[in-house]
Automatic annotation (TrEMBL):
GO molecular function, one term: ATP binding
Species this chain originates from: Streptomonospora nanhaiensis
Keyword Lyase (UniProt): no
Superkingdom, taxonomy of origin: Bacteria
Residues of the ABC transporter domain: 15-248
SMART domains attached to this UniProt entry: AAA
The protein, known as: ABC transporter ATP-binding protein
PANTHER family: MALTODEXTRIN IMPORT ATP-BINDING PROTEIN MSMX (PTHR43875), TREHALOSE IMPORT ATP-BINDING PROTEIN SUGC (PTHR43875:SF15)
Signal peptide (from-to): none
Amino acid sequence: MTAAPDTAPRAARSLTLRNLHKTYTARGREPFAAVRGIDLAVEPGEMVALLGPSGCGKTTTLRMIAGLETVTSGEVLIGDRAVTDLPPGRRDVGVGFEGYALYPPLSVRENLAYGLRARRARDVGPRVAAIAERLEITDLLDLRPAGLSSGQKQRVALARALVRNPPVLLLDEPLSHLDAGQRQRVRRELKVLQREFGYTTIVVTHDQLEALSLADRMAVMDGGVIRQFGTPDEVFDDPADRFVADFVGEPSINLVGGTVADGGGAVRIGGAGTLPTASRARAGTRVQVGLRPQDCELVGRGSARPALSATVGVFEYLMEFGLATVDLAGQDPPEAGGGGPGRFVVQTPGGASLDPGAPVLIGARPEHVHLFDPGTGERLR
Ligand SMILES: Nc1ncnc2c1ncn2[C@@H]1O[C@H](COP(=O)(O)OP(=O)(O)OP(=O)(O)O)[C@@H](O)[C@H]1O
C-alpha cells in the first residue's frame, strides 16, 4: 500500500476558544487582564482575521492558541482535542510570528527544511523549492537569516510556517514589512495556498484592507473582548456598536448628534434636515447618528427625499471615486482643523466632481443610517 503524499491537503480542523482569559501578573505590578473571556468557533478551513487597536489582546490570544503563552482560564480546542495544556510542538499548528526564531546558523533552505526533516517528511527538497517559488524567496535560499531585510525575513518566516501544510496556521502581522506591490502578491498567494491546502487560519492584523481581502470572517476586538464576529460585509454594514462602526471602514464613519423624529423612522440632525432610518428607536430619543461616507447619496434639488443640507468644503479626486468634506447646515462650527460635529465626509462616484462652496443635499437608505446611544455607544436597532 502506498502512503498518501505529504503534500496532499490535510483534513481541515476546527478551532474553538472557550471563555479564554489571560491575566498578566508581574512582580510589583497590578495584575493586568489582557484577554477577558473570548469565545470563538472557527470552521475547518476557514480564515479569520483578528482586528483591533493596539493593545486590545490580539497577539496574546494568538500566542495562547499557539501554546507560547499560558492560559489563565478557559480552553483551546483543535478539532475536538483540547490542547490548552500541550506544548507548542504537540498542537499541530504552524506559526508565522514576527521575530519567531529563524535559526541563525542555518541557511534559509535549511531553516525551511528543518521542520519537515524533524517530522521525517518525504520530498523535502521539492517542497522547499515549491514554497520558495510561491513566496518569491528562491534567490534567498542559500543566505543566512542575518543577511536578510525585514521584508525578506517575513517571507521566509511565512514560508517556514506554510511548508509543513499545518492543519492550523497562526499568523501575526504576516505582511507588515513588505512593500505595497509585494504585499499584494504575497497576500494573494497566501489566500490561494490557504484555499488549496485548507489550513484553518487565524491572522492578526492592524490593516483593514488585509483583513477584508484575506478573511472569511473577522473578529473585531477591543479591551480584551470580541465586540463583533462576522463576515466583512456584516461587520461593515451592520456594526454591533459604535466602537465597531468607528473602527472598521476607511474613511471613518460620520458620527453626528440627532434626535429621533416624531413618528419614528427618521432622525433629525439639528438644522441640517432629516435622514430616514430603519431603527425603531422611540421618537424624541437623543442619539448619535452614524452614516458611512460610502453610503452617502447626493440627492437632486427638488427631490422629496429626506436629506441633509450641506456645503462642500474640500473635494479630493481619487481616480475611482472622490471624497468631499462637507459642512452640515445649522450645526456648531467644526473644531479648527479636525472633523467637528457638523462635518461629513461623502464618497462620490468616479467622474463626479464637486466645487468648494457648492451646496449639496445628502441622503441615504434607511438601513445605512445607524443609531447609537450617545453615552454607551450601544446600537439602537
Ligand atoms: N508579558 C506581558 N506582561 C504584561 N503585560 C503584557 C504582556 N504582554 C502583553 N501585555 C499587555 O497586554 C495587552 C495586550 O497586548 P497584546 O500584545 O496582546 O495586544 P495587541 O492587540 O496584539 O497589540 P498590538 O497590535 O500593539 O500588537 C497590552 O496592554 C500589553 O501591554
